Amino acid sequence: ADSHLDEKGDDFEIIMEGKFKPKDLTEFRAVFKSFDKDGNGTIDKSEMRSALTSLKMYDSLGKLDDIMKEVDTNKDGVIAWDEFLHIMYCCKFGGKTSHFGKVYDKQKQTVVKVGKGHTVHSFAVEEMIAFSEHINHSLKDDKDLANWDILPINTEEKKQMGLCTAVQDGLLLAKFINVAVPETIDERALNKPKGKKKLSLFQINENMNIVINSAKGIGIKVVNIGAGELIDGAAHPHIVLGLVWQLVKLQLLNSVNIKAHPELVRLLEEGETLEDLLRLPPEQLLMRWFNYHLKNAGSERRVNNFSGDVKDSECYTVLLHQIAPGKCDAKGLAVTDKKKRAQMVLNNAKKLDVESFITPSDICKGNPKLNLAFTAAIFNQCPGLDPLDEEEMDKIGLLEDDVGDSREERAFRMWMNSLGLEDFYINNLYDDCADGVNLLKVIDAVEPGIVYWKKVEKKPTNKFKKVANQNYAVVLGKQLKFSLVGIGGIDFVDKKKKLLLAFIWQLMRHHTLKYLGKVQEKHFGGKAVTDDMMVKWANNKVADAGRASRMRSLKDKGLGTCVFFLDLLYAIRPKVIDDQYVSEGKTEEDRLLNAKYAISVARKLGAVVFCIPEDLVEVQYKMVLTFVASTMSCAT
Predict the structure, then answer these.
(1) With contact defined as beta carbons under 8 Å apart, do 413 and 220 qualify?
(2) Higher pLDDT, 24 or 245
(3) What is the pLDDT of residue 112?
(4) Orientation angle between helical segments 125-138 and 237-253, nearest 10 degrees
């Protein structure tokens, strides 16, 4: 078996993976991830020690060293995936007595496994409990969910499947989406139980359409998540947990930004501009905030992750004492028992009315999700930063319009993230598209096979290589007949916002109309769909349904009442619209209510929509086009 160690790198990993059945590999991955608390793809000594301690198998540093030496064959101090597979192969087929094999068997039992067919999926019980409690708290005042016996979710049950069964009709998820991003879903569009009568499968599927398409619309990754997996959540707990975690994270990190907390500009470091700070994703901004307070408290410690760096609770103790010295003491630093110190941290957090569902054990284990959630909860309750004076506020105000998140940029970002591309997430449109790689991935998704990847610098290390990638993107745009007069690759590298937005809009338009033409091939006869063709078809559809509204064009200001959009949805499926919720749109409030209802009903039909109600009321051409095209794609 040891001869395999001579082989290196990716090839060795592929060879090792080929020695196991798919179901074994799935189990190994789940257990590997349960050791790898910071999610960096390796198991370090502190993570192994943490696992041994929680398994009550840690008795000496010598034993820890022996286990690391046994598995860490290249002696770089960490256990990589290929080394992990090698020891598993030796244990399984080599008849080798292994210290690590015993650790593995015990660790395997710390995750609950749900088998279906040939695959085994695992999930962390502590996360299922914590998120269930978080949802119970966030929606505790919702009388509907209590009346329907959906809440509170049972967290006493042995297998911890309460959350998985609670999501099965879509109503809990819809309500929680509105907690994460208020007013995303218009509840008038949801199918709700009447009396004791349960929802039909058709009604549940419609609710799930709203949930999944609304989640896409707010930037949640829902690749491989369908209504079936959520309806049968007990058989797919990993999918339920993955979706709920994204929503919890979005809810908790939503206000970790300069717009909500202008005082975060105090985190600027020497030589940085406000724009540099605005580029940081919420997680990094939260980490910077944590370290700012550690530095000001005179601590030499710094936090680079929400797992190994926080699990001894020392940094939490310093943070809480620094932001609220009158309420939170630092006595925990004198305590040697880490679990006791963690409990003292939670007691201090309670004094600040921090709502969190992490346990001392979760802190000590270094669970990255629950520790991130806890840190965000502390920030949301007590940022501990001095407010800005008028002069400082004016500075931010002047820059806000220029660097703020425009609605168009947001819509394009959400659309790109919804395409289901691997290793792809756009946090800041201009930064994340600057080297051309992500832009080329989107082009290839919109027009599969168009990108010749051997021409692409996948890791461009200098400006010359980035410009080469962007020039290639412009060439491909011209092949797709985009209007690109005066646009060159250098413009995207230099983050010229209007030019990049113009390019991405043409990509989104091409993708939307191509999909419409494909699903409605009978109607359009395989021709490229134009604005005029869409307007004519939509008007005919509405007229055939006996409704009186019409549109002259996709820029028709009369569309601002949103009555036509609702009539189009009625024409596609009459029962989907409840006329009691439709007004003539005479006031601004009525128009926004109509728009909100139209967006949720479109999602109920299966449309993937990225606009917000204001886009429809203001008749923003680009968003109107994508809304109408996505809606018409659902017509039978």
Answers:
(1) no
(2) 245
(3) 56
(4) 50
